[in-house]
């Protein structure tokens, strides 16, 4: 009887954990995508629409789809590293996904096409702002490392680490989305100038007239 009771409790806990994970992932995907799209439009504040939770079902699927697009080929490509050292394999895979995932996410949002996850214009604009690109990667990586460290402490040392983790995890997600959204706005609406060249006054006046128009490109949901 004791064994049967333990099995029932285990199955119930497993089902509850699965349901909670789906709900949590849905909210994470919603706030991630909304923050990115609003930030890429140049908004100083992010406005979250008052939609029903049932209308968010596609957002976690979309985020996981982009991750899977890069995860499966990267895993196969780095598979020989497993014979050398599994830790090296995990580190290389994590770094590769960290670099490619935001590019795929922004490309798919910009084109509104789930199959267009490497947009050449997005990539070209990002690379032209290589200084800002490095800054965004550095700042988001530092925040993610702190978040992972707190989570490891909560699972391996004491449950008290879960208190700062409960605050740090959502903050890191919003910080990540805000930085990449603002970088997308910068990449799409501004061209980096590496050389100072003398231009005709006609071109300068045309640019000033164009700048007075309240139009700008943005990542759309």
What does this structure look like?
The chain is an all-alpha fold. Helix content is 74%, strand content 0%. The protein has helices at 2-40, 58-77, 81-84, 86-111, 120-128, 130-156, 162-189, 201-211. Helix 1 (2-40) crosses helix 2, helix 1 runs parallel beside helix 7 (162-189) and helix 5 (120-128) packs across helix 7 (162-189).
Give a short summary of the structure:
With 221 residues, the chain is mainly α.
Low-confidence stretches: none
Total helices: the number is: 8
Give Rg in angstroms.
Answer: 22 Å
Beta strand count: 0
What's the N-to-C terminus distance? 53 Å
SSE-based structural type:
mainly alpha
- Helical content class: over 70%
| Main sheet record | none
Shape: globular
What is the typical, i.e. mean, pLDDT? 82
Strand residues, percent: under 5%
Order of helices and strands: HHHHHHHH
Descriptors:
221 residues
SSE map:
Elements lengths: L1 H39 L17 H20 L3 H4 L1 H26 L8 H9 L1 H27 L5 H28 L11 H11 L10
Helix pairs in contact: 1-2, 1-7, 2-4, 5-7, 6-7
């Amino acid at each position: 009887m004791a064994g049967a009771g333990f099995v029932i409790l285990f199955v119930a806990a497993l089902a509850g954990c699965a349901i909670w994970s789906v709900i949590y992932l849905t909210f994470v995907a919603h706030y991630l995508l909304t923050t990115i799209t609003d930030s890429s439009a140049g908004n100083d504040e992010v406005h979250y629409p008052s939609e029903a939770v049932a209308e968010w079902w596609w957002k976690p699927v979309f985020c996981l789809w982009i991750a899977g697009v890069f995860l499966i080929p990267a895993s196969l490509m780095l598979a020989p590293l497993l014979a050398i050292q599994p830790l090296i394999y995990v580190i290389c895979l994590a770094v590769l996904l960290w670099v490619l995932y935001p590019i795929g996410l922004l490309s798919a949002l910009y084109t509104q096409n789930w199959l267009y996850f490497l947009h050449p214009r997005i990539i070209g604009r990002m690379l032209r702002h290589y200084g800002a690109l490095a800054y965004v990667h550095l700042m988001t990586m530092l925040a993610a490392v702190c978040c992972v460290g707190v989570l490891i402490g909560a699972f391996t040392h004491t449950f008290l680490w879960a208190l700062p983790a409960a605050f740090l995890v959502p903050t890191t997600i919003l910080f990540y989305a805000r930085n990449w959204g603002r970088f997308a706005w910068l990449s799409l609406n501004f061209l980096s100038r590496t050389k100072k060249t003398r231009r005709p006054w006609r071109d300068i006046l045309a640019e000033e007239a164009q700048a007075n128009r309240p139009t700008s490109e943005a990542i759309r949901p």
